[in-house]
Every structure is written in structure tokens, then in C-alpha cells.
Design brief:
Strand content: under 5%
Oligomer: single chain
Distance between the termini: 16 Å
Radius of gyration: 19 Å
Structural class: mainly alpha
């Protein structure tokens, strides 16, 4: 439970960073498929068990203690680290993005290696994932309506990205025009806004998790290659060196911090590799 809680915290920290996905962390730490299956188990059949008083069986069906540990970890990380992540991105942007760049790159490469293509079609899914990841992480999706409806819809859409490796929920919120509103709501403890967003997340999660569970059960390798492609496609977004949102070479950057940036990329890659190894042994 404690280890699962800390994995949830890592997911929450990742979801705070535009360009990084909590789903990527779930995949790296070996809890992704269990998480999708547990969320998808929240259905009418288990609701009937609850209404009939069979709480214990319903709790077991949805892997309740696991879900509770993950979600408490995510929520506590969001409240504890929202200010820190905001500071790091503002004051140490190059180094912060370098770490996450290494994290995502090595994660995608290890995922491809772990699921070596047994059919040529899997390579096509990889290319499709790269293209989709690039489009979703660079194109403006258009602003949502103002007020309560916009916050609810933002939750429905962003949660789908948050549980997809490679697609950042925070980035989707930026593209929808709601990121600043929600980060400010977290810092100011605006509970009505946060609860409405959470309700939207719950609705989106219950719908989207069923699709993901079906894909993982019937088309596992194709899904994994698409997810790896999504991660590679978002690398353009997390490129550490940019000036006024324009990506440039580190040699042209006023403060490239190249040696330290490369060191952080390598450290992130080693961390991912160790987590993959631990997951394989388990």
C-alpha cells in the first residue's frame, strides 16, 4: 500500500507538468494495466453489490485498496507539489524539462524493446502514435466555454490524457485554456471549482477506461506500440531548449546548461531502466 501510494504521488507530480503524463509513470512503475482494470471494474454490476449491502465483494472487485492508495497519492502530490513544480518550471526550466525529456524518451524505447514487434503492423501503430502525439501536444484545441460547464468538460477530456502514457493532461488543459484556472484553484483551495473538475474527471475516466481495458485485452501489442508512439510524439513539446516558446538548438540558447542537462537526462533514463528491471523481476 505504501509503495503504491508513492507511485500514485509520482503520477500526481507528472500530471502537474505540461508535457508529462501520469500514465507514463504508471507504465514505468508497473501498475498501468492493473489501474485500468480496476477503474473499468467500477460499473453497474458492482453498484448493485453496494446497494444490496455486499460492500466487501464490491470493494474486492474494483481492487479498492489499490485504487485508494493510487488516488490518495495523486491528490496529495497535486496539493503538495503544485507550487514547487510551478517554481521549477519558472526558475529552472531547462533542467526540469531535461529530466522529463530523458524520462519519456527512455520509457518509450524500453516499451518498444519489451514488446518487440512480432508483426509489421505493430510498426505502423508506432508511427500512428508518434503522429497523434505530435498533433495533440502542439495544436491548439480551442477554448472551452467559461464557467461551470467548461470546467466539467475540461475534467472529462483531460483525464483521458492523464491515463494515456505520452499525452499530458496538463498540456491538454493548456490547449483547452483551463490550466492556469485550475492551478490557481489548487493554490487558492477553491473547492467548488476543484470538485466540479473532479466530477468531470470521474465521468471521463469511467467511460474511457473501459475502452482501454478492451484494447489491452484484445490488442495488447498494438496498443502498447501506439502508446510508445504517443510518448515519442510528445518529445517535441518537452524539448528543454526554447526561447519564447520557439524550440532551438542548445548551442543557440543563452543559458543551455548543457552538461548538467545531459546528466539529468541520463539520470532519468537510468531511473526508468531500474524501475523497468524491478517490474520485470516482480
Amino acid at each position: 500500500m505504501i509503495i503504491t501510494y508513492f507511485k500514485g504521488m509520482l503520477m500526481g507530480i507528472a500530471d502537474l507538468v505540461p508535457g508529462v503524463s501520469g500514465g507514463t509513470i504508471a507504465l514505468i512503475t508497473g501498475i498501468y494495466q492493473r489501474l485500468i482494470n480496476a477503474i473499468a471494474a467500477v460499473n453497474l454490476a458492482n453498484l448493485k453489490l453496494v446497494l444490496s449491502g455486499n460492500f466487501k465483494k464490491a470493494w474486492q472487485q474494483i481492487d479498492g485498496w489499490f485504487l485508494l492508495a493510487v488516488f490518495i497519492g495523486i491528490i496529495s502530490a497535486i496539493f503538495l507539489f503544485a507550487g514547487l513544480i510551478k517554481y521549477l518550471l519558472a526558475s529552472h526550466a531547462v533542467l526540469t524539462w531535461s529530466f522529463f525529456f530523458g524520462l519519456i524518451l527512455v520509457s518509450a524505447l524500453l516499451l518498444i524493446k519489451q514488446n518487440h514487434p512480432s508483426h509489421w503492423a505493430n510498426s505502423i501503430f508506432l508511427v500512428i502514435g508518434v503522429a497523434l502525439g505530435y498533433v495533440l501536444s502542439t495544436q491548439n484545441l480551442g477554448a472551452l466555454p467559461a464557467g461551470h460547464i467548461g470546467i466539467f468538460l475540461a475534467g472529462c477530456i483531460a483525464i483521458c490524457a492523464m491515463i494515456l502514457p505520452g499525452i499530458s493532461g496538463s498540456l491538454i488543459l493548456i490547449l483547452l485554456g483551463k490550466y492556469v484556472t485550475l492551478v490557481s484553484a489548487v493554490e487558492a483551495r477553491e473547492w467548488s471549482t476543484l470538485l466540479l473538475f473532479a466530477l468531470g474527471c470521474l465521468v471521463g475516466l469511467l467511460i474511457f477506461s473501459r475502452l482501454l481495458k478492451w484494447l489491452l485485452a484484445r490488442h495488447y501489442k498494438a496498443t502498447m506500440f501506439t502508446l510508445a508512439g504517443l510518448m515519442l510524439g510528445t518529445l517535441f513539446r518537452v524539448w528543454p531548449w526554447h526561447v519564447a516558446a520557439i524550440k532551438i538548438s542548445p548551442l543557440n540558447h543563452p543559458e543551455p546548461q548543457l552538461a548538467l542537462s545531459l546528466l539529468l537526462m541520463v539520470l532519468a533514463g537510468v531511473l526508468v531502466w531500474l524501475l523497468f528491471k524491478l517490474d520485470q523481476k516482480k
